Structures are given as C-alpha cells and as structure tokens.
C-alpha cells in the first residue's frame, strides 16, 4: 500500500473555510434572534420610548418623529425665537400653563419655555382643536394669518395659532396649549421621548 502524502496547505484551507462558513452561519442565525429583543412596530406604536439624536438639527430647524403613532416636533429654537416668548404672554390664552393647559405638560416643563433645556422644544404636534397637525412657521415676520407673527405654529384647517412654546393664542378655536410628552435627555445630543428623567415628577 502506497504512503499517501498529506497536503498540509489544503488541509489548512479546508479547516479555515469550514470555520469561516460556520461562523457566518452562527451570525446569520443570531441576527434574527437579537432583533426579536427589539420592540415591535406595534409595541413602539403603543408607547415604547423613542430615542433621537439631535446632532443634525440646526438652530431654527424642526424634526418630526413618531411616538405612539403621534407626530412629535423637536425644534432647536434660536436665541431670537426664545427672546420673543415673554413678549407674547398678553396675546395668549394660558401663558403660564396653569389654567386649562395645566395638564398639557409634565411639571418639569411647566415653565416659560415649556422645556427642560430652553433651546429644545419637544412637543406633540397635534392641534388641541380637532387634532390636525399644525404647520411650523418659524420665521419671525408678518404672515397673512398674523401681521405680528413672531414664529410658531399655524393650523391651516381652522386657523388656530401657537407660539414657539406651543402656547395657544387668544381668539382661535383651539382651547389649550399643545401637549408636551414625557421626555429626558440621555446626553447632550440625544433625547428620549416617552420616559421621564429619573426622579422627575
């Protein structure tokens, strides 16, 4: 019987190839398993928290994300937009959110800017009249619907108007300020909507 010569190079190649293919198979099998830990679309719609990076939102810009099947407006308010907020109080239904709008935000957002950090507005984008989604009109300039416009939200359906803190103006159909959801900042550039800050009331 002739001695067989073992091709060590071929053996190493086959062993390595088998290990790689096996590793790929393990990863392929693990991905769906790990994905199954993530909240389903139904769970997210039912209220699972939504985490959003703020890095690409420039001053004056708005981003809309979905939480509980609701639009949530995230606005990086400019210093000019913040500066005019106190000047609007006399035109508003409930400027301090202490009347009918007292239930429209968590206690930690019941302040002049209705927010945790003044520059960041995080608000449910639903008009409190009939549930329409108002338009963001951030520029401070005269508008056909308000010659003294100082930025904010306008609902074209029935002409309700809100300032840059979502506070409703007098003389419009909407009865309350727009709602602020529970939220907190995970870090300086990330917000999580749907969960209060630890220890917050």
TrEMBL record:
All copies of domain Rieske, residue ranges: 87-192
Topology with respect to the bilayer: Single-pass membrane protein
Primary residence: membrane
Compartments reported by the entry: Cell membrane
Cofactor note as given: Binds 1 [2Fe-2S] cluster per subunit.
Keywords, sorted A to Z: 2Fe-2S, Cell membrane, Disulfide bond, Electron transport, Iron, Iron-sulfur, Membrane, Metal-binding, Translocase, Transmembrane, Transmembrane helix, Transport
Catalytic activity reported: a quinol + 2 Fe(III)-[cytochrome c](out) = a quinone + 2 Fe(II)-[cytochrome c](out) + 2 H(+)(out)
InterPro entries: Rieske_2Fe-2S, Rieske_2Fe-2S_sf, Rieske_Fe-S_prot, Rieske_Fe-S_prot_C, TAT_signal, Ubiq_cytC_Rdtase_Fe-S_su_TAT, Ubiquinol_cyt_c_Rdtase_Fe-S-su
EC id: 7.1.1.8
Requisite cofactors: [2Fe-2S] cluster
Any single Pfam family the record assigns to this protein: Rieske
Parts of the chain that traverse the membrane: 12-34
Domain of life (superkingdom): Bacteria
Record flagged with keyword Iron-sulfur: yes
Protein family (similarity comment): Belongs to the Rieske iron-sulfur protein family.
Subunit structure: The main subunits of complex b-c1 are: cytochrome b, cytochrome c1 and the Rieske protein.
UniProt function note: Component of the ubiquinol-cytochrome c reductase complex (complex III or cytochrome b-c1 complex), which is a respiratory chain that generates an electrochemical potential coupled to ATP synthesis.
Other information: The Rieske protein is a high potential 2Fe-2S protein.
The protein, known as: Ubiquinol-cytochrome c reductase iron-sulfur subunit
Species this chain originates from: Dyella humi
């Amino acid at each position: 019987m002739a001695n067989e010569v073992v091709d060590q190079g071929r053996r190493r190649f086959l062993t390595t190839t088998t290990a790689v293919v096996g590793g790929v198979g393990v990863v392929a099998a693990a991905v769906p398993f790990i994905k199954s830990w993530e909240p389903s679309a139904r769970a997210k719609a039912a209220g699972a928290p939504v985490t959003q990076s703020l890095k690409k939102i420039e001053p004056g810009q708005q981003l809309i994300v979905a939480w509980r099947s609701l639009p949530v407006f995230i606005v990086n308010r400019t210093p000019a937009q913040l500066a005019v907020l106190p000047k609007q109080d006399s035109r508003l239904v409930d400027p301090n959110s202490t009347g009918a709008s007292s239930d429209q935000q968590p206690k930690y957002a019941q302040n002049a800017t209705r927010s945790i950090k003044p520059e960041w507005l995080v608000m449910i984008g639903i008009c409190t009249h009939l549930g329409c989604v108002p338009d963001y009109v951030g520029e401070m300039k005269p508008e056909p619907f308000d010659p003294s416009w100082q930025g904010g939200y306008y609902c074209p359906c029935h002409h309700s108007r809100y300032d840059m803190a979502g506070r409703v103006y007098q003389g419009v159909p909407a009865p309350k300020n727009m709602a602020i959801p529970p939220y907190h900042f995970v870090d300086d550039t990330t917000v999580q909507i749907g969960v209060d800050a630890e220890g917050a009331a």
